[in-house]
Amino acid sequence: MSALFEPYTLRSLTVPNRVWMPPMCQYSAVAEGPLTGAPNDWHFQHYGARAAGGTGLIIVEATGISPEGRISPYDLGIWNDAQVEAFRRITAFLKSQNTVPGIQLGHAGRKASTDRPWVGGAPVGADAHGWQAVAPSAVAFDERHPVPAELSVDGIKEIVGQFADAARRSLDAGFEVIELHGAHGYLIGQFLSPHSNKRTDEYGGSYENRTRFALEVTDAVRAVWPEELPLFFRISATDWLDGEEGWTADDTVRFTAELKEHGVDLIDVSTGGNASGVRIPVGPGYQVPFAARVRNEAGVPAAAVGLITEIQQAEKILVDGEADAVLLGRELLRDPSFARHAARELGADVHVPDQYHRSV
Asked: How does the average pLDDT of the chain come out, rounded?
């Protein structure tokens, strides 16, 4: 059997194949009114097309645990019942296509309140549905971003509770996997890295203090998420800060082993996003070695992401033991039926909708 099309079981959940879709913001929710942050027809067709194309697991884009936790005013959210109801339509359709529905829960921290990328992605103010960003420390991401407000300990505790509330709503919405967004320089990652965390209290300074918030969030979510369903954590394995203080691959190996002890079942391994102006050696599969370290050194299941675009490339990553699954971002935007095409090339089976039987 092709490695890409071998089912994968975590806890009591079996994903039918290893072709997975990572979270990719669509910036297509409405920014005001009773349906603020709720998925709409764009999201239904976007995720539905990839499910009909045979994708084994779809992780819905970064979804704000609160209005202030969104990256932009146009992001999805899961802080109210109207959003939950709108998500049910999507999760039900994904399940009907033999696809596991997952959701990424996140808080953008100091990178919040920005515009859509195709209109520049600059920070926006109250006149454009924006808000005051918060962070571990009053340190701006770059010269374009305003200085965020430093979170109090009470504010930190409130956000931990919001993650737990969002997890409860995710279950009610029909999701079967939760991924915590600890990557790309958003709030959890901001706490992890000494580049962005300058606190001197119990949430800053030492490695143990900087990882405290992430572990508190993980524990709070795991406490309300069913024992039989898996919990993922997305991490930036390195800040790519050569010769400077930042989060490193060694930190990642150490921390992911701890996450496993706190009930995390799989690490979605990415890199970067917490420091501006860094040089990243972008190329095919450039982040795969970090996933391999998590899998083989920390002993935690890992998924690889980052310019994985070819069928044989994806298959080889799994065969070589570098990851347990592959997450295809841009390639699934280009080709919603990547899984079906890969199954044909590799001589494997994949779910095909009855309506498409003529294409088999």
From this structure: 97
- For residues 269 and 304, the answer to whether their CB atoms sit within 8 Å is yes
Hey, what amino acid is at 77?
G
pLDDT at 294 over 90: yes
Taking only the tens place, the pLDDT of each residue in 3-22 is 999 999 999 999 999 999 99
Helix axes 212-224, 249-261, angle to 10 degrees: 30
Outline where DSSP puts E strands in 218-317.
231-236, 266-270, 302-305
Which pair of tokens denotes residue 179? 């991924």
Nearest residue to 325 (alpha-carbon basis) of 346, 283, 284, 294? 294
pLDDT tier at 243, thresholds 50, 70, 90: low
Residues labelled catalytic: 186
- C-alpha torsion sign, points 51, 55, 57, 60: negative
Name the β-bridge partners of 234.
181, 268
Burial 124-145 (b: 16+ CB within 10 A, else e): beeeebbeebbbbbebbbeeeb
Task: For residue 221, give the amino acid letter.
Answer: V
